[in-house]
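Pasting as-is:
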Amino acid sequence: MVEVTRTFEQLDHLLDSVESSFARLEDYDRRWGELSTDDKDDFLVEWPIIEGKLLKLQELAKQGCVPHRYRGRYRQLQERVTRDRPVLESLWERP
């Protein structure tokens, strides 16, 4: 039971983190020109951590380790990632 609880906690943490990061992309896109160089650098340095969390989620899903109660949330996240990936890529290309 402890292992199941840890898995649920891990899924909650991963989903929360990745969802909130992708939710902020539109704001970064809108304000990119106003951000300081340090803020831009922080974003660019921290984003690979988010990508790592996303990869972990995808790995868990491939292994069938995403319980039914999380599947809708995971599916919505995947849709958002697909939709917002071009925004993210454009931020990497901007000065």
